[in-house]
Amino acid sequence: MPISVGDGFTVGNNQPVDARFALANPTERFGLAADNVFEGLTVYQTGSGVEGYFILTDLANYNNASGWTKISLPILTSSNGSSTTTVMDFPTSSYDGAVIDYTIKNGNNVRTGTIISAWDSLDNIDFTETSIKGVGDTTDASFTFVVSNATASLQITNTNSYSTVKILARAL
Question: Would you say 108 and 165 are in contact if contact means Cβ atoms under 8 Å apart?
Answer without folding.
Answer: no
